[in-house]
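During the second year of the project, the team shifted from modelling isolated chains to modelling whole assemblies. The rationale, set out in the original proposal, was that interfaces cannot be judged from single-chain predictions alone. As a representative example for this report, we include one of the complexes processed in the last quarter. Its constituent sequences, exactly as entered into the pipeline, are reproduced here:
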Amino acid sequence: MPFNILVLSCLAYVIFLFGVAWAAERRADRGRLGWLQSPLIYTLSLSIYCTAWTFYGAVGYAARSGLEFLTIYLGPTIVFIGWWWILRKLVRIGRQQRVTSIADLISSRFGKSNLLGVIVTVIAVVAATPYIALQLQSVTLSFSVFASPTDDGFSPPGTEATAVWVAGGLALFTILFGTRNLDAKEQHHGIVTAIAVEAVVKLIALIAVGVFVVWFMADGPADMIARIDASEIADWNLQPGRWAGLLFAAGAAVICLPRMFQVMVVENADERHLATASWAFPLYLFAMSLFIVPIAVMGLERLPAGANPDMFVLTLPLAEGQGALAMLAFLGGFSSATSMVIVESIALATMVSNHIVMPVWLRLRPSRAVSGDVRRLVLLSRRISIGVVLGLGYAYYRMSGGSTALAAIGLIAFVGVAQFLPAMVFGIFWRGATRIGAALGMTVGFVVWAYTLFLPSFGADAVIPAMVFIDGPWGIGWLRPRALFGVSTMDPLLHALFWSMFLNTAAFLTGSLLTFPGPVERMQGAAFVRVFDTTTGSPRGWQRGLAEPEDLLVMSQRIMGDEDALVFFEAEAKGQGKAGYLPDPTPEFMARLERRLAGSVGAATAHAMMSQLAGRATVTVEDLMAVASESAQIMEYSARLESQQEEVTRTARALREANEKLMQLSIQKDAFLSQISHELRTPMTSIRAFSEILTEGDLPPELVANYGRIIHDEAKRLTRLLDDLLDLSVLENGTVQLNLGLSNLSQMIDRALASASHTKPERSFIIHRDLPMENIFIRTDADRLVQVFINLISNARKYCDAASPELRISVRQKGGRVTVDFVDNGSGIAKDSQALIFEKFARLTDQTRAGGAGLGLAICREVMANLGGTITYLPGQGGAAFRVAVPLRLERKAG
Amino acid sequence: MTARVLLIEDEPNISEAIRFILSRDGCDVTALADGTGALDAVRAAMPDLVILDLMLPGLSGLEILIQLRADPTTQSLPVMMLTAKGQGRDREAAERAGASHFMTKPFSNDDMRAAVRALTQG
Amino acid sequence: MAQAPHTPPLFLRPASYRQRRRRDAARLLPVIGVFLMLLPVLWAPQDTFHRDTAPDGIYLFVVWAVLIGLAMLISRSLNATDEDDPDAPGDQGLGQ
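Output from the structure prediction step:
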């Protein structure tokens, strides 16, 4: 097949995937997740377990060692049908703690330790590098097999060039869809959907080749079995050690591989999907491996002796002249490679940015306050990390020369990531596991793995001198990389697996037994191990009242984005029975906020950032014990006693609240009367004094005119005040007549701006507007809404104290509501006053009045209530900021 | 002798009215619009009478009064308090703080003149 | 917390009882799986010269299919009832 057609079909396929990812993202953005979150998509996305290694390499593996390749699929099958043991718990913990990666899980479990995050990240990157190289290699290999040089003048470029193009293209795709947004929970609907599509393609491709082999080349299953019996692999040698060891390694890898953890735990939208995947994913693996042996047998039978068995899936249809089938197989292999690389690099980039870049940044940053947009930094570091990870893979591919059999490289990576297993499994089942134990275990395991398996894989004399293989380092025989402690008869892979896992677990257990965990560690340990136990009281990690809610809000906005942070804070405040956006910094709220932030930047970083604002989390072991005994005591109470008590407390609280409300009403009424008296008397004083002066006569005419004008102005002021008071009373009684109609929001803002420009006309204001967003038709009482806008704009004109004042009016539409924000660049309103400004006659302080009766915002509030909307003060916007929210369609109230 | 009056009142129209009434009556009136610089102004000018509004931007009239009474040089200075609130509470507070006279807005011009005369000549 | 009794009841209602046994089955399944998959180690020692690839393969695929079928049955029955009976304190697997 001509090379250019091959490249074109690849491009077309990638563009198609682009389209799929893009469409899925758009659906998700509109909140119509629907089938994007179905168990089917979840199961298919898990299929990134089957990489190009599986797609091409399994046949090669079968051609070399018979049925042993099945262990790679049987191991995960056991883990998945045993989901009730481990996977269910992992997924629950992942969702509850908003885990972003396997590094985050382990770091979070052991007291949000950044050290562990770094260790896991380093191991994962090192282990993944050859694996990514393997994918690049298989794609380039398939290119070169497929695109045999033709005489039509278009010969394929060298394999290096192909690898560069593939790596670059994958980096681009991953960056585009993998780092588009920094979600609270790291989920990428576009990528997951594209991967599900690729899963279908590779399954269909492999099955198509298999069907072709069994029913078209052979005469059905019976003939196929006869051919297997007649082939070179009719008698396979089952090596018990390797069989069991590989089952174990594959089972461990399916949990520990960063990309598997990403799709299985991080991208999981619903725990129930796991129940489906528990049988559907093994079924997928079953289908993927069903035809491996027939293809291998047929390849050995039909193809020339020197043919690379790793490429049988491609070369067999090609040799039979089935171009279309070969094309399909090629796309299947291409899918396997690309989907693996995309998810692996996202998972690794998340780990690198959360556990290496962010902590370094936090430490280097000079000031305590969070400055700049953290989101941009995180996204940038992820994009760079993706490039670096793929670059490493490419470098390894160039270095290793791409000659090793595919299966060997894959198994090296499996054993590498299996080093996470003891820390992870003991971490979620055993509260005695400690940070130091985990760090020791993983480090020891990693070193042993690197020394006995990874570094030797480069070949003798490449990294480790050949002498060391024979005599051991410094002539110490029992330290030979292939024969640790004199164990020389084992298969090298098994040898490495055995020693790394044994020493890892031993170091882990010893470390855990000998060290004492810190308080945060114990807290997290309990939360992880007892994740299903809903009755344990949540321990308090943060002390009350040490952090300013406004600082927390500013920090959260930088990480979660303005809108999400405001929504979260508002919901929290509402949960505490407070209006507005600033909940009290209770320990419960702080813990929830930390968890939410952890979903974006990882537990360790989130914890460190919170600590900077709230002081160290000052929980002690005594605190933990107090909480434990407290919850134990509470359980002692009989249910009846408790409910009675609750009833009494509830009633008492209701009474107390009613009483407080009455008292406050009475105080408010007094204050209101006194205020009204003041506001009425002030213009009255001028009117009376000047009218007496005028009646005394004997004045120059210009003074008469001047004083007459003052009397007139003050009379107008009195009238306005009375109008306002009447307006307010009508609004408060809810007897106001609304003129509902459709009006354009942009025109309403125009009207308000024109009208408010009479206030302090000498100040030049810069107004920022978003005209396209404003172009909404709202069914409401336009005059009333404009009245509110005028009030807010004139307030900004009056009170904004910036040297060059600016006002930003931004409009958002969400569901059936429209919000209009008015944000100026002045010094804003002091926190204490924020709760008061909507009260009648509340001026910012009694002293700083600048005319006006102080009824404006009170009227605004009542108007908004009558329009079915709200007006609130938005803290933390860098100036005075008000948010007006109205329903898009206001329906007339019944009756 | 012309009595020198220092008027501290934030409502410009009321301030203008009092200035006019007292000037015609032969006083020399200086007007201030907020409480911040009021204490310094009093100490610098040492007027014969201070007329103080109770609610002022900057420093409230009541606080100015309390500080004037605490300073030996201004301890016996006649001070007239003005208020638009007109509640008994405010009057009591002003008298406790040592106001020489208390006047509720709105006032009749004659009352104002009479009170100023009494305070500056008495 | 008010409705959480201090000690779990000694005997369960039939529905809960069935639920618990289904969970036990879910826990047992991988153990059976491991046993069946390691079985070839016992009856296929490496020094045979039988043509055993085809029969071993068929055995493994049959075991595999049966396990998938059982997992499907179990997960369906668990899934349907998972919501109305969140884990009682007794259901902790290896926990604590």
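Chain A has five domains: 3-365+372-401, 408-529, 534-636, 664-733, 740-887. The CA atoms of residues 693 and 865 of chain A lie 46 Å apart.
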